[in-house]
User: Which sequence fits this backbone?
């Protein structure tokens, strides 16, 4: 922010010295805490650091005073704090047994790998790559994707080792350990949602147990597997499910349980981003699909290939192409985005990718038009320091900031925007922010990327509106576009879904739908 008084860099060491317990040694007289009397010079330094901290915070407050936080956002923050303080109950018996089971599983898998390879440390990437090479299988990487690829062609004896490595690579136990570290004395985990955690869209970020990236569950007998783990019956789990780490991974969600006498009501928005972008762009055929309750992947494939497509029916094989196109191409993505989304793993060939991109864009001309209209509006606002309005959005540049005002009234803010040059030599908008390196840097952007921010931010505002309409309910978790409510079994699921699916007054014409289920433990239905 270019403040005159910057924070003092020595603060981290001083905090560690005075605010954390220290190891007792002969030199420090066996103490476990450093007091001011133990280092008067450092204490004076620490006081100066703290005073400077306050001055810096005051400087930040003064700079930001011209951009007050709207009351509606404060209201969202208060709801967020209520959810964080309420917390969610954890099944600590399941957690403890899962950790014990994972420890035993890892021990047995490592022993099996040592027996098969004669390696000192079969978990070592370098040692394992060398062993595979010595046995006729060269590989540059041993990451999840590379191992899965190697398993397709590896001879049986090598495939067995690779399979064991794949099981060992599962980091399911980390989530269970995070639960142990986070749980409070009353058996509930709290403080798991960071308000406005995503810089560009304002979506939440996960903290502690990190709910935003929980593994999915596909076990048909989830409750039975859960019961076996909870009883600590390792042998039955190993016999019935073979891959113990994978089973534990699939059970992570089920560690979240409602309090006694209640159930979880889980409700989420159906295809929220696809609905929002269609609404913004005015892509009528998509809106009609949503209004009629149709399958957007089938409809997209039908629009792209000009034939009827039905799930598990006529031309059903094309639905997969419609799905991958929908997931990868909505924000300006091309062949690279399809590859990154796993198009080749899903059976598509390299030659099919460019025609797929063309077919999707030709089927969605208004969305493509929306990308470049946003690009022009942002460029004009930055270049001429003017305010422009289009698609229900306002683009303005003032006080060294680019603002995009959403239909909800909330602003997306981009610091120190200017016209720059992209990697292809063309002009683009650049601004300062936390980039891919996790450091403050100048970031390139263009129309489709701004559209992604706008759509995801609007989806976030719709979720906030749902939270406000359901604030009388006990919301305990929210994951992406999903709410988890702890409620009496007599409560109506339909009533919750109807309430959640209400369109905000600022989004007239947007078709929303929320679907849900009731469960005695959290899971992906």
Assistant:
């Amino acid at each position: 922010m270019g403040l005159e008084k910057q924070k003092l860099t020595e603060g981290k060491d001083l905090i560690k010295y005075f605010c954390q317990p220290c190891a007792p040694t002969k030199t420090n007289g066996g103490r476990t805490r450093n007091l001011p009397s133990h280092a008067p010079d450092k204490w004076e330094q620490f006081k100066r650091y703290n005073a400077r901290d306050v001055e810096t915070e005051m400087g930040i407050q003064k700079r930001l005073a011209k951009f007050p936080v709207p009351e509606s956002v404060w209201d969202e923050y208060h709801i967020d704090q209520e959810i964080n303080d309420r917390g969610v109950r954890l099944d600590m018996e399941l957690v403890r047994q899962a950790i014990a089971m994972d420890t035993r599983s890892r021990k047995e898998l490592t022993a099996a790998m040592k027996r098969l390879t004669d390696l000192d440390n079969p978990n070592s990437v370098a040692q394992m790559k060398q062993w595979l090479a010595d046995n006729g299988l060269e590989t540059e990487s041993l990451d999840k994707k590379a191992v899965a690829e190697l398993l397709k062609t590896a001879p049986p004896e090598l495939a067995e080792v690779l399979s064991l490595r794949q099981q060992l690579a599962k980091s399911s136990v980390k989530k269970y350990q995070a639960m142990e570290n986070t749980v409070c004395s009353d058996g509930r985990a709290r403080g798991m949602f960071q308000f406005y955690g995503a810089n560009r869209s304002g979506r939440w970020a996960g903290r502690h147990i990190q709910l935003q990236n929980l593994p999915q569950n596909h076990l048909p007998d989830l409750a039975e597997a859960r019961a076996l783990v909870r009883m600590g019956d390792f042998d039955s789990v190993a016999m019935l499910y073979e891959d113990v780490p994978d089973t534990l991974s699939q059970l992570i969600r089920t560690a979240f349980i409602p309090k006694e006498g209640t159930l979880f009501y889980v409700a989420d928005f159906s295809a929220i981003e696809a609905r929002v972008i269609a609404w913004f762009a005015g892509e009528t055929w998509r809106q009609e699909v949503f209004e009629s309750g149709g399958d957007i992947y089938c409809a997209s494939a039908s629009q792209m290939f000009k034939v009827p497509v039905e799930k598990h029916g006529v031309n059903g094989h094309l639905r997969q192409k419609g799905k991958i196109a929908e997931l990868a191409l909505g924000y300006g993505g091309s062949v690279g985005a399809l590859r990154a989304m796993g198009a080749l793993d899903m059976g598509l060939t390299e030659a099919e990718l460019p025609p797929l991109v063309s077919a999707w864009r030709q089927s969605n001309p208004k969305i493509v038009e929306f990308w470049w209209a946003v690009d022009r509006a942002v460029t004009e606002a930055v270049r001429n320091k003017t305010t422009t309005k289009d698609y229900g959005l306002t683009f303005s540049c003032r006080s060294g900031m680019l603002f995009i005002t959403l239909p909800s009234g909330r602003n997306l803010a981009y610091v120190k925007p200017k016209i720059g040059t992209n990697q292809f030599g063309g002009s683009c908008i650049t601004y300062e922010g936390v980039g891919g390196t996790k450091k403050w840097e100048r970031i390139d952007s263009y129309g489709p990327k701004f559209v992604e921010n706008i759509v995801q931010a609007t989806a976030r505002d719709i979720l906030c509106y749902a939270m406000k309409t359901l604030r009388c309910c006990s919301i305990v978790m929210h994951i992406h576009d999903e709410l988890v409510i702890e409620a009496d079994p007599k409560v109506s699921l339909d009533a919750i879904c109807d309430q959640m699916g209400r369109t905000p007054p600022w989004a007239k014409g947007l078709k929303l739908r929320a679907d849900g289920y009731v469960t005695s433990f959290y899971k992906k239905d």
